Amino acid sequence: MGRLQQFRLPDLGEGLTEGEILQWLVSPGDEVRLNQLIVEVETAKAAVEVPSPFAGVVHELHHAAGEVVDVGAPLITIDTDPAAGPLDAPDSGGTVAAQAAAGAAANPVESAAPKQAQAVGSRPEVLADTVPAGALIGETGANGRTATLVGYGPRAGAATRRPRTVRPAAPAPGPEPAPPPPATAARVSAAAVGQAAARFAGAVPVLAKPPVRRLAKELGVDLAVLRGTGPHGTVSRADVEAAAGSDAEPAPPAEQQAAPAPPAEQQHDPATRERRIPVRGVRRMTAAAMVGSAFTAPHVTEFVTLDMTPTMELLPRLRALPEFAGVKVTPLLLVAKALLLAVRRHPEINASWDEAAQEIVVKDYVNLGIAAATPRGLVVPNLKDADAMSLAELAAALQALVTTAREGRTQPADMARGTITITNVGAYGVDNGTPILNPGESAILCLGAVRPMPWVHEGEIAVRQVTQLALSFDHRNVDGQLGSQFLADIARVLSDPSVALAWS
Fold first, then answer.
1. Region 113-126: what's the mean pLDDT?
2. pTM for the full model?
3. Which of 142, 154, 386, 457 sits 20 to 30 Å CA-CA off 53?
4. Choosing from 62, 63, 346, 475, which is the catalytic residue?
5. Other C-beta atoms within 10 Å of 389: how many?
6. Which domain holds residue 440?
7. Residue 339 belongs to some domain of the structure
8. Whose CA is closest to 4, among 251, 265, 183?
Protein backbone atom coordinates (compact mmCIF):
# COMPACT_ATOMS: atom_id res chain seq x y z
CA MET A 1 0.00 0.00 0.00
CA GLY A 2 1.26 3.44 -0.84
CA ARG A 3 2.65 5.50 1.96
CA LEU A 4 0.60 8.60 1.11
CA GLN A 5 -3.14 7.94 1.24
CA GLN A 6 -5.54 10.45 -0.25
CA PHE A 7 -9.04 10.75 1.18
CA ARG A 8 -11.73 12.26 -1.02
CA LEU A 9 -14.89 14.02 0.15
CA PRO A 10 -17.57 11.30 0.44
CA ASP A 11 -21.27 11.66 -0.25
CA LEU A 12 -22.47 12.91 3.12
CA GLY A 13 -26.04 11.79 2.58
CA GLU A 14 -29.04 11.84 0.25
CA GLY A 15 -27.08 12.38 -2.96
CA LEU A 16 -25.57 15.75 -2.01
CA THR A 17 -22.98 16.92 -4.52
CA GLU A 18 -20.85 19.37 -2.56
CA GLY A 19 -19.95 20.63 0.90
CA GLU A 20 -18.37 23.73 2.39
CA ILE A 21 -15.43 23.26 4.73
CA LEU A 22 -16.31 25.00 7.99
CA GLN A 23 -13.14 24.18 9.89
CA TRP A 24 -10.27 21.76 9.93
CA LEU A 25 -9.77 19.89 13.18
CA VAL A 26 -6.22 18.89 12.22
CA SER A 27 -3.21 20.60 10.64
CA PRO A 28 -0.29 19.38 8.50
CA GLY A 29 2.09 17.47 10.76
CA ASP A 30 -0.59 16.36 13.21
CA GLU A 31 -0.82 12.66 14.03
CA VAL A 32 -4.31 11.27 13.51
CA ARG A 33 -5.96 8.05 14.62
CA LEU A 34 -8.33 5.84 12.70
CA ASN A 35 -11.83 7.38 12.87
CA GLN A 36 -10.57 10.57 14.54
CA LEU A 37 -12.66 13.58 13.49
CA ILE A 38 -10.60 15.64 11.06
CA VAL A 39 -12.89 18.20 9.39
CA GLU A 40 -16.31 19.80 9.77
CA VAL A 41 -18.23 20.13 6.51
CA GLU A 42 -21.54 21.89 5.91
CA THR A 43 -23.87 20.45 3.30
CA ALA A 44 -27.28 21.60 2.21
CA LYS A 45 -28.71 19.56 5.09
CA ALA A 46 -26.46 20.07 8.11
CA ALA A 47 -22.95 20.42 9.46
CA VAL A 48 -21.19 17.05 9.60
CA GLU A 49 -17.96 16.03 11.30
CA VAL A 50 -15.99 13.67 9.07
CA PRO A 51 -13.70 10.96 10.55
CA SER A 52 -10.37 9.88 9.12
CA PRO A 53 -10.23 6.51 7.34
CA PHE A 54 -6.48 6.30 7.98
CA ALA A 55 -4.04 6.48 10.88
CA GLY A 56 -0.84 8.41 10.36
CA VAL A 57 0.42 11.98 10.02
CA VAL A 58 -1.38 14.69 8.08
CA HIS A 59 0.69 15.48 4.98
CA GLU A 60 -1.53 17.96 3.13
CA LEU A 61 -4.91 19.70 3.37
CA HIS A 62 -6.18 20.21 -0.17
CA HIS A 63 -8.74 22.93 0.61
CA ALA A 64 -8.94 25.78 3.09
CA ALA A 65 -11.82 26.60 5.43
CA GLY A 66 -14.59 28.41 3.56
CA GLU A 67 -14.02 26.61 0.25
CA VAL A 68 -16.80 24.60 -1.41
CA VAL A 69 -15.62 21.10 -2.35
CA ASP A 70 -17.29 18.72 -4.79
CA VAL A 71 -18.03 15.20 -3.63
CA GLY A 72 -15.17 13.01 -4.84
CA ALA A 73 -12.58 15.81 -4.80
CA PRO A 74 -9.35 15.29 -2.80
CA LEU A 75 -9.79 16.40 0.79
CA ILE A 76 -6.69 15.39 2.73
CA THR A 77 -3.52 13.36 2.24
CA ILE A 78 -2.17 11.31 5.15
CA ASP A 79 1.24 9.71 5.54
CA THR A 80 0.38 6.26 6.86
CA ASP A 81 4.01 5.29 7.61
CA PRO A 82 5.77 8.34 9.08
CA ALA A 83 8.30 6.11 10.85
CA ALA A 84 9.94 5.45 7.49
CA GLY A 85 11.53 8.88 7.64
CA PRO A 86 11.13 12.11 5.70
CA LEU A 87 9.29 11.87 2.43
CA ASP A 88 12.26 13.16 0.48
CA ALA A 89 14.59 10.48 1.86
CA PRO A 90 16.30 8.21 -0.70
CA ASP A 91 14.35 5.16 0.52
CA SER A 92 10.97 6.86 0.58
CA GLY A 93 9.95 5.42 -2.74
CA GLY A 94 10.24 8.45 -5.03
CA THR A 95 8.57 11.82 -5.13
CA VAL A 96 5.50 12.82 -3.19
CA ALA A 97 3.41 12.79 -6.34
CA ALA A 98 4.58 9.31 -7.21
CA GLN A 99 3.79 8.05 -3.71
CA ALA A 100 0.31 9.58 -3.84
CA ALA A 101 -0.29 7.96 -7.21
CA ALA A 102 0.95 4.64 -5.89
CA GLY A 103 -1.37 4.94 -2.92
CA ALA A 104 -4.35 5.63 -5.18
CA ALA A 105 -3.45 2.70 -7.40
CA ALA A 106 -3.16 0.37 -4.44
CA ASN A 107 -6.49 1.53 -3.07
CA PRO A 108 -8.76 2.30 -6.05
CA VAL A 109 -11.89 2.55 -3.94
CA GLU A 110 -10.32 5.12 -1.62
CA SER A 111 -9.86 7.40 -4.66
CA ALA A 112 -13.12 6.44 -6.30
CA ALA A 113 -15.92 8.58 -7.69
CA PRO A 114 -18.71 9.93 -5.50
CA LYS A 115 -20.99 7.03 -6.29
CA GLN A 116 -18.86 4.81 -4.05
CA ALA A 117 -19.08 7.17 -1.09
CA GLN A 118 -21.32 6.99 1.92
CA ALA A 119 -22.55 9.29 4.66
CA VAL A 120 -20.12 9.57 7.53
CA GLY A 121 -21.97 12.08 9.67
CA SER A 122 -22.36 9.45 12.34
CA ARG A 123 -19.20 8.31 13.98
CA PRO A 124 -18.75 4.63 13.07
CA GLU A 125 -16.58 2.70 15.44
CA VAL A 126 -14.53 0.83 12.82
CA LEU A 127 -11.44 -1.18 13.63
CA ALA A 128 -8.56 -1.06 11.23
CA ASP A 129 -8.86 -4.72 10.23
CA THR A 130 -12.58 -4.92 9.51
CA VAL A 131 -12.31 -4.39 5.72
CA PRO A 132 -11.42 -7.46 3.70
CA ALA A 133 -8.20 -7.22 1.75
CA GLY A 134 -8.45 -7.10 -2.01
CA ALA A 135 -12.24 -6.68 -2.20
CA LEU A 136 -14.23 -3.85 -3.70
CA ILE A 137 -17.20 -2.45 -1.83
CA GLY A 138 -19.91 -5.10 -1.61
CA GLU A 139 -17.58 -7.91 -2.67
CA THR A 140 -16.16 -10.71 -0.56
CA GLY A 141 -12.40 -10.92 -0.20
CA ALA A 142 -10.13 -13.91 0.14
CA ASN A 143 -10.59 -13.90 3.90
CA GLY A 144 -14.35 -14.42 3.51
CA ARG A 145 -15.36 -10.96 4.71
CA THR A 146 -17.47 -8.50 2.76
CA ALA A 147 -16.22 -4.94 2.22
CA THR A 148 -18.89 -2.67 3.67
CA LEU A 149 -17.18 0.61 4.59
CA VAL A 150 -18.31 2.51 1.50
CA GLY A 151 -16.23 5.52 0.55
CA TYR A 152 -13.15 4.47 2.47
CA GLY A 153 -12.25 1.34 0.55
CA PRO A 154 -10.48 -1.90 1.44
CA ARG A 155 -7.06 -2.14 2.95
CA ALA A 156 -4.42 -3.78 0.79
CA GLY A 157 -3.25 -5.83 3.73
CA ALA A 158 -3.94 -6.55 7.34
CA ALA A 159 -3.87 -3.22 9.14
CA THR A 160 -2.62 -2.91 12.67
CA ARG A 161 -3.04 -0.20 15.24
CA ARG A 162 -0.11 2.20 15.40
CA PRO A 163 2.02 1.71 18.51
CA ARG A 164 1.80 4.42 21.12
CA THR A 165 4.62 6.92 20.82
CA VAL A 166 7.10 6.43 23.66
CA ARG A 167 8.75 9.55 25.02
CA PRO A 168 12.54 8.97 25.15
CA ALA A 169 14.41 9.24 28.41
CA ALA A 170 16.25 12.44 29.23
CA PRO A 171 19.56 12.55 27.30
CA ALA A 172 22.90 12.44 29.07
CA PRO A 173 24.78 15.73 29.44
CA GLY A 174 26.43 16.73 26.25
CA PRO A 175 25.60 18.30 22.90
CA GLU A 176 21.88 18.83 22.44
CA PRO A 177 20.52 16.22 20.04
CA ALA A 178 18.86 17.32 16.82
CA PRO A 179 15.06 17.49 16.94
CA PRO A 180 13.17 14.63 15.31
CA PRO A 181 11.82 15.09 11.80
CA PRO A 182 8.42 16.80 11.76
CA ALA A 183 6.82 13.75 10.15
CA THR A 184 7.50 11.65 13.23
CA ALA A 185 6.41 14.13 15.87
CA ALA A 186 3.53 12.76 17.95
CA ARG A 187 1.21 15.75 17.80
CA VAL A 188 -2.56 15.99 17.90
CA SER A 189 -4.40 19.19 17.00
CA ALA A 190 -5.88 20.98 20.01
CA ALA A 191 -8.98 21.68 18.00
CA ALA A 192 -9.93 18.02 17.66
CA VAL A 193 -13.37 18.55 19.21
CA GLY A 194 -13.16 17.08 22.65
CA GLN A 195 -10.34 14.64 21.93
CA ALA A 196 -8.30 16.08 24.77
CA ALA A 197 -6.48 12.87 25.64
CA ALA A 198 -3.90 12.85 22.88
CA ARG A 199 -1.80 10.56 25.03
CA PHE A 200 -4.22 7.76 24.23
CA ALA A 201 -3.43 7.80 20.51
CA GLY A 202 -5.06 4.85 18.80
CA ALA A 203 -7.94 4.66 21.27
CA VAL A 204 -11.58 4.58 20.16
CA PRO A 205 -13.05 8.12 19.90
CA VAL A 206 -15.12 9.26 22.84
CA LEU A 207 -18.87 8.88 22.34
CA ALA A 208 -20.65 12.05 23.48
CA LYS A 209 -23.28 14.35 22.05
CA PRO A 210 -22.29 17.91 21.06
CA PRO A 211 -24.03 19.54 24.08
CA VAL A 212 -22.13 17.20 26.40
CA ARG A 213 -18.83 18.01 24.68
CA ARG A 214 -19.56 21.70 25.06
CA LEU A 215 -20.34 21.29 28.76
CA ALA A 216 -17.13 19.31 29.26
CA LYS A 217 -15.16 22.09 27.61
CA GLU A 218 -16.80 24.72 29.83
CA LEU A 219 -16.13 22.72 33.01
CA GLY A 220 -12.62 21.68 31.99
CA VAL A 221 -13.40 17.96 32.02
CA ASP A 222 -11.32 15.54 29.93
CA LEU A 223 -13.87 13.32 28.14
CA ALA A 224 -11.24 10.73 27.25
CA VAL A 225 -10.76 9.68 30.88
CA LEU A 226 -14.46 9.25 31.64
CA ARG A 227 -16.36 5.98 31.56
CA GLY A 228 -19.68 6.70 29.93
CA THR A 229 -22.83 5.40 31.60
CA GLY A 230 -25.10 6.04 28.61
CA PRO A 231 -26.08 3.62 25.83
CA HIS A 232 -23.05 1.87 24.27
CA GLY A 233 -20.74 3.73 26.64
CA THR A 234 -21.87 7.23 25.64
CA VAL A 235 -20.68 9.93 28.02
CA SER A 236 -23.73 11.73 29.45
CA ARG A 237 -24.21 15.16 30.95
CA ALA A 238 -24.40 13.57 34.39
CA ASP A 239 -21.03 11.88 33.84
CA VAL A 240 -19.41 15.23 33.01
CA GLU A 241 -21.00 17.04 35.95
CA ALA A 242 -19.97 14.24 38.31
CA ALA A 243 -16.39 14.42 37.05
CA ALA A 244 -16.35 18.19 37.52
CA GLY A 245 -17.26 17.76 41.20
CA SER A 246 -20.37 18.13 43.29
CA ASP A 247 -19.91 21.90 43.42
CA ALA A 248 -20.16 22.26 39.64
CA GLU A 249 -23.17 24.28 38.63
CA PRO A 250 -25.22 23.13 35.66
CA ALA A 251 -24.87 25.07 32.46
CA PRO A 252 -27.19 28.06 32.25
CA PRO A 253 -30.25 27.91 30.00
CA ALA A 254 -29.58 28.47 26.32
CA GLU A 255 -31.11 31.95 26.31
CA GLN A 256 -28.88 33.01 29.22
CA GLN A 257 -25.66 31.76 27.67
CA ALA A 258 -23.43 34.22 25.90
CA ALA A 259 -24.33 34.37 22.25
CA PRO A 260 -21.54 33.40 19.84
CA ALA A 261 -19.55 36.30 18.52
CA PRO A 262 -20.99 37.46 15.18
CA PRO A 263 -18.74 37.08 12.17
CA ALA A 264 -16.80 40.10 11.11
CA GLU A 265 -19.02 42.24 8.92
CA GLN A 266 -17.88 42.44 5.35
CA GLN A 267 -17.32 45.85 3.87
CA HIS A 268 -19.54 47.24 1.14
CA ASP A 269 -18.09 47.69 -2.32
CA PRO A 270 -17.10 51.38 -2.48
CA ALA A 271 -18.09 51.55 -6.13
CA THR A 272 -21.64 50.23 -5.72
CA ARG A 273 -22.10 50.70 -1.95
CA GLU A 274 -23.43 47.15 -1.92
CA ARG A 275 -22.23 43.83 -0.55
CA ARG A 276 -23.18 40.32 -1.57
CA ILE A 277 -23.73 37.37 0.75
CA PRO A 278 -23.15 33.91 -0.78
CA VAL A 279 -26.13 31.63 -0.17
CA ARG A 280 -24.84 28.12 0.46
CA GLY A 281 -25.50 25.00 2.45
CA VAL A 282 -28.50 25.02 4.77
CA ARG A 283 -29.54 28.55 3.83
CA ARG A 284 -29.71 27.71 0.12
CA MET A 285 -31.68 24.53 0.75
CA THR A 286 -34.10 26.43 3.00
CA ALA A 287 -34.64 29.12 0.35
CA ALA A 288 -35.43 26.52 -2.31
CA ALA A 289 -37.76 24.60 0.02
CA MET A 290 -39.68 27.72 1.03
CA VAL A 291 -40.19 28.79 -2.59
CA GLY A 292 -41.38 25.30 -3.49
CA SER A 293 -43.76 25.19 -0.54
CA ALA A 294 -45.18 28.68 -1.04
CA PHE A 295 -45.96 28.12 -4.72
CA THR A 296 -47.05 24.48 -4.50
CA ALA A 297 -49.30 24.19 -1.46
CA PRO A 298 -52.26 26.62 -1.27
CA HIS A 299 -51.75 28.26 2.11
CA VAL A 300 -54.52 29.41 4.44
CA THR A 301 -53.67 31.11 7.76
CA GLU A 302 -56.04 31.56 10.69
CA PHE A 303 -55.48 33.42 13.97
CA VAL A 304 -56.75 33.25 17.53
CA THR A 305 -56.05 35.50 20.53
CA LEU A 306 -56.30 33.88 23.94
CA ASP A 307 -55.81 34.38 27.65
CA MET A 308 -52.87 32.15 28.53
CA THR A 309 -52.70 33.14 32.20
CA PRO A 310 -53.62 29.67 33.57
CA THR A 311 -50.85 28.07 31.51
CA MET A 312 -48.28 30.66 32.62
CA GLU A 313 -49.29 30.08 36.25
CA LEU A 314 -48.82 26.33 35.76
CA LEU A 315 -45.18 26.66 34.67
CA PRO A 316 -43.57 27.34 38.10
CA ARG A 317 -45.54 24.48 39.66
CA LEU A 318 -44.28 22.09 37.02
CA ARG A 319 -40.69 23.29 37.47
CA ALA A 320 -40.89 22.40 41.16
CA LEU A 321 -41.78 18.77 40.44
CA PRO A 322 -38.94 16.22 40.66
CA GLU A 323 -39.90 14.81 37.25
CA PHE A 324 -38.70 18.06 35.64
CA ALA A 325 -35.43 18.46 37.55
CA GLY A 326 -32.63 19.49 35.21
CA VAL A 327 -34.84 20.29 32.21
CA LYS A 328 -36.40 23.51 31.00
CA VAL A 329 -40.14 23.98 31.38
CA THR A 330 -41.20 26.73 28.97
CA PRO A 331 -44.40 27.99 27.35
CA LEU A 332 -43.25 26.26 24.16
CA LEU A 333 -43.37 22.91 25.97
CA LEU A 334 -47.01 23.35 26.95
CA VAL A 335 -47.92 24.66 23.50
CA ALA A 336 -46.34 21.53 22.02
CA LYS A 337 -48.32 19.33 24.38
CA ALA A 338 -51.55 21.17 23.51
CA LEU A 339 -50.84 20.65 19.82
CA LEU A 340 -50.23 16.93 20.32
CA LEU A 341 -53.53 16.59 22.17
CA ALA A 342 -55.31 18.44 19.36
CA VAL A 343 -53.72 16.13 16.78
CA ARG A 344 -55.16 13.17 18.67
CA ARG A 345 -58.61 14.70 18.32
CA HIS A 346 -58.11 15.69 14.67
CA PRO A 347 -55.67 13.15 13.13
CA GLU A 348 -56.37 14.34 9.56
CA ILE A 349 -54.36 17.50 10.27
CA ASN A 350 -51.25 15.31 10.62
CA ALA A 351 -51.03 14.43 6.95
CA SER A 352 -49.28 15.10 3.65
CA TRP A 353 -50.35 15.47 0.04
CA ASP A 354 -49.20 12.83 -2.46
CA GLU A 355 -49.13 14.74 -5.74
CA ALA A 356 -48.38 11.72 -7.92
CA ALA A 357 -51.22 9.61 -6.53
CA GLN A 358 -53.54 12.54 -5.80
CA GLU A 359 -54.09 11.17 -2.31
CA ILE A 360 -53.99 12.43 1.26
CA VAL A 361 -51.58 10.45 3.43
CA VAL A 362 -52.62 10.55 7.11
CA LYS A 363 -49.78 9.69 9.52
CA ASP A 364 -50.33 7.51 12.58
CA TYR A 365 -47.31 9.07 14.27
CA VAL A 366 -46.33 12.65 15.05
CA ASN A 367 -42.81 13.80 14.26
CA LEU A 368 -43.04 17.27 15.76
CA GLY A 369 -40.83 19.83 14.05
CA ILE A 370 -39.45 22.86 15.89
CA ALA A 371 -38.23 25.69 13.66
CA ALA A 372 -34.86 26.92 14.95
CA ALA A 373 -32.80 29.87 13.78
CA THR A 374 -29.08 29.08 13.66
CA PRO A 375 -26.03 31.00 12.44
CA ARG A 376 -26.19 28.91 9.27
CA GLY A 377 -29.86 29.50 8.57
CA LEU A 378 -33.26 28.10 9.52
CA VAL A 379 -33.47 24.40 10.32
CA VAL A 380 -36.49 22.35 11.37
CA PRO A 381 -35.40 19.27 13.33
CA ASN A 382 -38.21 17.10 14.61
CA LEU A 383 -38.95 14.91 17.59
CA LYS A 384 -39.70 11.42 16.36
CA ASP A 385 -42.92 9.94 17.82
CA ALA A 386 -43.49 12.99 20.01
CA ASP A 387 -47.09 11.89 20.55
CA ALA A 388 -45.85 8.88 22.55
CA MET A 389 -43.81 10.99 24.99
CA SER A 390 -44.79 12.01 28.49
CA LEU A 391 -44.60 15.70 29.34
CA ALA A 392 -41.26 15.21 31.11
CA GLU A 393 -39.85 13.24 28.16
CA LEU A 394 -41.08 15.92 25.78
CA ALA A 395 -39.35 18.62 27.87
CA ALA A 396 -36.01 16.81 27.80
CA ALA A 397 -36.27 16.07 24.08
CA LEU A 398 -37.12 19.69 23.26
CA GLN A 399 -34.18 20.96 25.27
CA ALA A 400 -31.75 18.61 23.54
CA LEU A 401 -33.17 19.40 20.11
CA VAL A 402 -32.93 23.19 20.52
CA THR A 403 -29.43 23.05 22.01
CA THR A 404 -28.12 20.84 19.22
CA ALA A 405 -29.72 23.05 16.56
CA ARG A 406 -28.24 26.25 17.98
CA GLU A 407 -24.81 24.65 17.96
CA GLY A 408 -25.25 23.77 14.30
CA ARG A 409 -24.96 20.04 14.96
CA THR A 410 -28.36 18.89 13.71
CA GLN A 411 -28.00 15.84 11.48
CA PRO A 412 -30.00 15.25 8.26
CA ALA A 413 -31.91 12.34 9.81
CA ASP A 414 -33.16 14.66 12.56
CA MET A 415 -34.79 16.90 9.95
CA ALA A 416 -36.35 14.15 7.85
CA ARG A 417 -39.93 12.81 7.98
CA GLY A 418 -41.48 15.67 9.95
CA THR A 419 -45.30 15.71 10.05
CA ILE A 420 -46.26 19.02 11.71
CA THR A 421 -44.26 22.02 12.94
CA ILE A 422 -44.22 24.78 15.56
CA THR A 423 -42.40 28.09 15.05
CA ASN A 424 -41.92 30.40 18.02
CA VAL A 425 -41.65 34.04 16.90
CA GLY A 426 -42.65 35.16 20.38
CA ALA A 427 -39.07 34.47 21.48
CA TYR A 428 -38.13 37.62 19.54
CA GLY A 429 -40.94 39.74 20.96
CA VAL A 430 -43.09 39.39 17.82
CA ASP A 431 -46.85 39.13 18.24
CA ASN A 432 -47.52 36.81 15.32
CA GLY A 433 -46.92 35.95 11.70
CA THR A 434 -48.08 33.90 8.74
CA PRO A 435 -45.67 30.92 8.61
CA ILE A 436 -44.92 28.96 5.46
CA LEU A 437 -45.44 25.22 5.59
CA ASN A 438 -42.45 22.97 5.99
CA PRO A 439 -42.37 20.97 2.70
CA GLY A 440 -44.27 17.70 2.94
CA GLU A 441 -46.42 18.80 5.89
CA SER A 442 -49.99 20.07 6.09
CA ALA A 443 -49.87 22.47 9.05
CA ILE A 444 -47.56 24.76 10.98
CA LEU A 445 -48.41 26.58 14.22
CA CYS A 446 -46.93 29.98 15.01
CA LEU A 447 -46.64 31.05 18.66
CA GLY A 448 -46.49 34.77 19.36
CA ALA A 449 -45.17 36.68 22.36
CA VAL A 450 -47.03 36.30 25.67
CA ARG A 451 -47.72 39.81 26.99
CA PRO A 452 -49.56 41.31 29.98
CA MET A 453 -52.60 42.99 28.41
CA PRO A 454 -56.09 44.20 29.46
CA TRP A 455 -58.63 41.37 29.10
CA VAL A 456 -62.20 40.85 30.10
CA HIS A 457 -61.98 38.23 32.85
CA GLU A 458 -65.08 37.13 34.76
CA GLY A 459 -66.94 40.22 33.60
CA GLU A 460 -64.26 42.74 34.57
CA ILE A 461 -61.21 44.29 32.95
CA ALA A 462 -58.05 42.67 34.30
CA VAL A 463 -54.39 42.40 33.30
CA ARG A 464 -53.89 38.93 31.88
CA GLN A 465 -51.15 37.03 30.02
CA VAL A 466 -52.34 37.19 26.41
CA THR A 467 -50.90 35.68 23.26
CA GLN A 468 -51.78 34.98 19.64
CA LEU A 469 -51.59 31.73 17.73
CA ALA A 470 -51.56 31.44 13.94
CA LEU A 471 -52.10 28.24 12.00
CA SER A 472 -51.13 27.90 8.33
CA PHE A 473 -52.40 24.80 6.56
CA ASP A 474 -52.49 23.21 3.13
CA HIS A 475 -56.01 23.80 1.81
CA ARG A 476 -55.78 20.82 -0.54
CA ASN A 477 -56.19 18.35 2.32
CA VAL A 478 -57.20 20.55 5.27
CA ASP A 479 -60.46 22.41 4.88
CA GLY A 480 -61.48 25.47 6.87
CA GLN A 481 -63.55 23.54 9.41
CA LEU A 482 -60.76 21.11 10.27
CA GLY A 483 -58.17 23.87 10.54
CA SER A 484 -60.45 26.03 12.69
CA GLN A 485 -61.37 23.20 15.07
CA PHE A 486 -57.74 22.19 15.43
CA LEU A 487 -56.60 25.73 16.26
CA ALA A 488 -59.53 26.26 18.64
CA ASP A 489 -58.66 23.08 20.55
CA ILE A 490 -55.06 24.20 21.04
CA ALA A 491 -56.29 27.55 22.37
CA ARG A 492 -58.77 25.80 24.66
CA VAL A 493 -56.05 23.71 26.34
CA LEU A 494 -53.78 26.72 26.82
CA SER A 495 -56.65 28.78 28.26
CA ASP A 496 -57.58 25.98 30.67
CA PRO A 497 -54.91 23.26 31.11
CA SER A 498 -57.36 21.10 33.05
CA VAL A 499 -58.99 20.31 29.70
CA ALA A 500 -55.89 18.22 28.93
CA LEU A 501 -56.94 15.75 31.64
CA ALA A 502 -60.28 15.23 29.95
CA TRP A 503 -58.62 14.60 26.59
CA SER A 504 -55.74 12.40 27.80
1. 37
2. 0.55
3. 142
4. 475
5. 20
6. 283-503
7. yes
8. 183
